[in-house]
Write a structure and sequence with these properties.
By secondary structure, this protein is α/β, with parallel strands linked by helices. It is built from 22 helices and ten strands. Helix 2 packs antiparallel against helix 11. The relative contact order is 0.08.
């Protein structure tokens, strides 16, 4: 086992420590199982040597009582060992999943850019089970089966140490076989892990884009993609099965060879040293019984390697750096309710992970007053979305600073920064929950929802009539990403969510671009109510929607090239005026 494996195992053990009492109870129960296994061959010798000679005639009734009692003790001990171990494993499973999901919720934006949703789902839901298979398999095999082997081997030594030496040959040979198989299994398991995530990603894409798939008649194309990955996964699963499956037959072959040698030696000893039939039968029984736990110990190798590979993924995810370290919060400032003034000072940003890509923003200087409506326009790729994404600290500027109410953004507690911001985008994200829960998103449970305030927000977003039509009102479930609502209704529900939050800063990212005229009118009406009294940053491609903004900021290739009112920019006859002419000419 290499250093990386030992580190993973040590970390797993730390999760077991709080459950030491349950583990000790399980171990004691396993010891009883092992003792019961050892007792079976120990009974063979007196039963055969004395029972068939009539010496036990007066005690014959004790034999079935003892055997049934032994079976009951073994069964109960096995049940309790499995039950206690299951409690431990499920508690650890809950803890691991809790910590993994906690990491996901607080991970940096870059983490989600380099990991697909299917990969994360695979880690949190499926791979963690492989880690626990290691715990369960190791505890059962390494404890119960090891104790059984020790007990039976001790009895074998007691019966005939010369014959037992032959049995001992099995152990180093099995260890050698396992060491050869380990390396092969590890590489195969890593490849399986990757292919499983890839397969899940294809299912995720096909499910999310089912309309595009159907319209373009791409069912066969998606089926081919799926089958290609599924076939590769099948091949690697078979390779893993072959590599892992070698342990058991080789163990059985070695054990059979050892048994053959033992039989020959025992027959030779019986002729010269007077070995009794009972002693020989007890030895053979003990030897046959020791083969099963030995096979279990050999079989632990495959799930162990699979589990250790999964542990690498799990702990790699859990070790991802968080957006904001806990120790940093101690030296940061709290902000309850911002006034809404924003200042960008010589701000620059680069997607450093993308080699060869130009800086997304360069030397941005901009001041926004509380309650001001500022629109950001410009060609695609100009840096509009990047700039507004710096405000909630989804990204950190690579140069310059951003101020909120004259406080450097990085000096404010991250949760307090985001508490000041409401966000409405053209790509509406809703949750498979009730209308009320979506409007009051972030409230802790149903009891945390102010239903009156939620209803007021829905009315302000022009959704009052819809709520009246629904039998369950604001308690109606809206389906996956709100698929039971129309596009305009989904957009207005997102606006109601922003109204409910009542944040002093509002970011609108193309909030009406994908709507028909009637829906756009209703949404724009709701937006006008939402923008009242708030500092509003609007990203827009349709220039007709932002002509009444207090100011319009024009970005091109990461530079701020123009800044002023609609009338002023038209008069200047620069980039904005040119974009305006092109749009209205096309219209």
């Amino acid at each position: 086992m290499n250093a990386q494996d030992r580190t993973a195992l040590n970390r797993l053990i730390t999760y077991l420590k709080p459950h030491i009492r349950l583990i000790m109870g399980s171990l004691i129960a396993m010891a009883f199982v092992a003792a019961a296994e050892t007792s079976i061959p120990a009974l063979m010798k007196p039963l055969l040597d004395e029972g068939f000679t009539g010496q036990l005639n007066s005690k014959l009734w004790q034999i079935p009582v003892f055997l049934v009692g032994l079976a009951m003790v073994r069964s109960l001990a096995q049940f309790f060992s499995n039950y206690l171990l299951s409690r431990v494993i499920n508690s650890v499973l809950l803890k691991l999943r809790e910590q993994m999901f906690q990491t996901l919720l607080h991970a940096r934006t870059s983490f989600f850019q380099k990991n697909s949703a299917s990969n994360l789902i695979n880690a949190v839901v499926f791979e963690v089970n492989n880690v626990l298979a290691v715990m369960g398999g190791m505890l059962i095999s390494l404890v119960r089966d090891t104790l059984t082997v020790i007990g039976l081997m001790s009895y074998l030594i007691y019966l005939n140490w010369q014959l037992t030496l032959v049995v001992f040959i099995i152990f180093p040979v099995i260890a050698f076989v396992m060491s050869k198989v380990n390396r092969r299994l590890r590489s195969l398991n890593r490849e399986q892990q990757t292919l499983t995530s890839d397969l899940a990603y294809i299912v995720e894409e096909a499910s999310a884009g089912f309309k595009i798939v159907k319209v373009h008649g791409a069912e066969q194309y998606e089926m081919n993609r799926f089958l290609e990955k599924a076939e590769r996964l099948r091949q690697f699963a078979l390779k893993s099965a072959v590599a892992g499956g070698l342990n058991q037959p080789i163990t059985q072959l070695i054990a059979s060879m050892a048994l053959s040698v033992v039989l020959v030696i025992a027959l030779m000893q019986s002729a010269t040293e007077g070995t009794t039939v009972g002693g020989f039968a007890a030895f053979i029984t003990a030897m046959m019984l020791v083969i099963s736990p030995l096979k279990h110990l050999a079989d632990i190798n495959q799930p162990l390697q699979r589990g250790l590979t999964a542990a690498e993924m799990i702990f790699g995810l859990m070790d991802e750096p968080l957006e904001e370290a806990e120790d940093r919060k101690l030296n940061m400032k709290s902000l309850d309710k911002a006034k809404g003034s924003i200042r960008f000072e010589d701000v620059g940003f680069s997607y450093q992970q993308e080699v060869g890509r130009e800086d997304a923003l360069r030397g941005i200087n901009l001041s926004i007053k509380p309650g001001e409506v500022v629109a950001f326009v410009g060609p695609s790729g100009g840096g509009k979305s990047t700039l507004v994404n710096l405000l909630p600290r989804f990204f950190k500027p690579t140069s310059g600073r951003i101020f909120l109410d004259d406080i450097p953004l990085e000096d404010i507690v991250l949760a307090d920064v985001r508490k000041q911001i409401a966000f409405v985008s053209q790509d509406v994200i809703l949750f498979n929950d009730t209308i009320a829960a979506n409007v009051a998103y972030g409230a802790t449970g149903q009891e945390g929802i102010d239903r009156g305030r939620a209803m007021e927000a829905l009315e302000a977003a022009n959704l009052g009539a819809l709520i009246q039509e629904l039998p369950e009102g604001i308690d109606t479930l809206i389906g996956d990403n709100g698929n039971r609502l129309s596009g305009g209704q989904r957009q207005r529900l997102a606006i109601a969510r922003a109204i409910y939050k009542n944040a002093p800063i509002l970011i609108l990212d193309e909030a009406t671009s994908a709507l028909d005229s009637e829906s756009e009118r209703q949404v724009q009406d709701a937006l006008d109510r939402l923008m009242t009294g708030r500092t509003t940053l609007v990203i827009a491609h349709r220039l007709s929607t932002i002509e009444h903004a207090d100011r319009i900021v024009v970005l091109d290739h990461g530079h701020l090239v123009e800044n002023g009112s609609h009338k002023d920019l038209i008069k200047n006859d620069g980039l904005y005026a040119n974009l305006h002419r092109i749009q209205f000419a096309n219209a």
